[in-house]
Amino acid sequence: MIIVTKLQINDKGGIAQTVHYYQQTCTCGKWKIERFSCSHAIAVCSYRGDNPLSIVNTVYTTVTYRQQYTSSFVPLPHVDYWSESDRKIKADDLTHSVHRCRKRSNQFHNEMNIRHPGESRKFL
Fold first, then answer.
1. What are the SWIM-type domain coordinates in residue numbering (predicted)?
2. I need a surface site. Which of 44, 50, 83, 93 has the fewest CB within 10 A?
């Protein structure tokens, strides 16, 4: 189903979005990327007479939220009780570099940067 957004005062809107209701996708991409139904999908849901909660991903339901916190959390012990590890962290020498000279300029030179022989330097 094609949904056209409302034209706003600042000349935004009026864009057509295609909603594939059963595949749960929309051309705006929000439904697929965020797994949260976009306004276009809710408009189709309203047009069909369906409950908007039926198209919400289970990640965003209250049941899932409550299940996240039903188990108990085990706090970390104090640092004094941590066991020593035999693992050592070593830096990657390929990504580490030390610059010992003047930083190279990223400027693109053009005819204004060329100094001709016999011309003195101009300091501004």
1. 17-49
2. 83
